[in-house]
Design brief:
With 253 residues, the chain is an alpha+beta fold. Helix content is 15%, strand content 36%. The protein is built from 3 helices and 11 strands.
Length: 253
Amino acid sequence: MVAAAQIFTAKVMHKRLFPKENHFAYGVYYLALPLPAQPLRSIWGSFDPADLGRRDGSDPHDWARAILSDYGINEMIKNITLITMPRILGYIFNPVSFYLCMDENGALRAVLCEVHNTFGEQHSYLCAHADRSPIAADAWLAAEKIFHVSPFLDRSGSYLFRFDMRDDKLGIWIDYHDAAAERQLLTSLIGKLEPLDRSSLRRAFWRHPLVTLKAITLIHWQAMKLFFKGIRYFCLPKQHAETVSATHNLNKM
């Protein structure tokens, strides 16, 4: 459980298995913020609640709580910790932010994954067991893929999510399986948490300078590599009207 604001320093890994292999990994840092969270203003990285959730200036805490309530999970959730990239020099791009939802005993009950693509669209996957039981570190949760992220992956198939949070360590794994149920893409975000203060934020900035600009630049660089490898390009489809979906067998109340 994150009781106070933290810095999450981690390594992102992507590995595409077919039709041609492509692998990359790089260092990043995130803010780990108990919600609701006040805006953070710093030259080393900032947080604006308006960047997430409803993106209307309201705190994403209320937005997340409303989704948890729709699925009958809200009452058992005591604390929500947001894992999100900071704004750097006024620029923000968050490929995915994670809302870790814990009960009064600190057990992880749900994770809301808020995904943004480079086309300005947003979709969220709610990960939880159908019986709302705690999410163990070795548990995989499956969800249908219904949001277009990479133009080099079809909008079909499914995701498998896994979350492991203990002490000062956090690991997140998301595997993509295509429409034929073949595992095609492996992704992970693994790192350590430390208290957030001016000193730790400054160290993270210099360790991984311009992190959000780095993320968007590497996304386009990897896309260029895939293009020249001859990987099929999928045009942007019309987004589904539903902006929140859940793991298999987790139904709205």
